[in-house]
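U., I forgot to send this yesterday:
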Amino acid sequence: MFQEVGKNDPSLLDLSIVCIYDYSTDTYSSYLEEELPALWPILENCDMLIGYNSDHFDIPILNKYYPGDLTKIKSLDILKEIKDSFGRRLSLNTIAEGTLGTAKSANGLQAITWWRQGEIDKIRKYCLDDVKITKEVYDYALKNKELKFKDGGVMQTIKLDPSEWENLEASGMTFTLPF
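Result:
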């Protein structure tokens, strides 16, 4: 928790589990800290990292475990795109409810409780559910060029331009060594 590390700096937090969807294999997978070496080649071979608040939260945490620099891999942070288009940040749950008609299965604070209780399977399910929602939100935005949310019971639309997402600049790849 941020209160425990004394700053609102995600890179000071520890990783519990990483869950991903890989478009090239159409598979979901998860990795505990000791399994991260199996994740690096997948990330290094991807066209782009896609997440929700990932540039600010997920990538900085994961980067402290990676032997290279994950910020050099092209990334798309859907929350950043929403903020750039709409002018404010909205939770993944708010976007999922408005766009997909579904809610998240839990929240990050519940995941911390599960971690402390050793309930790794519950964290894995929660994180995989979040990845599935993020993928569906991304796919919806690609197809419809918008996302939706309810504001005071009124449906709002956020216009997006996904054609620009493929043109995001990648800085140069950093690779792990196989030994």
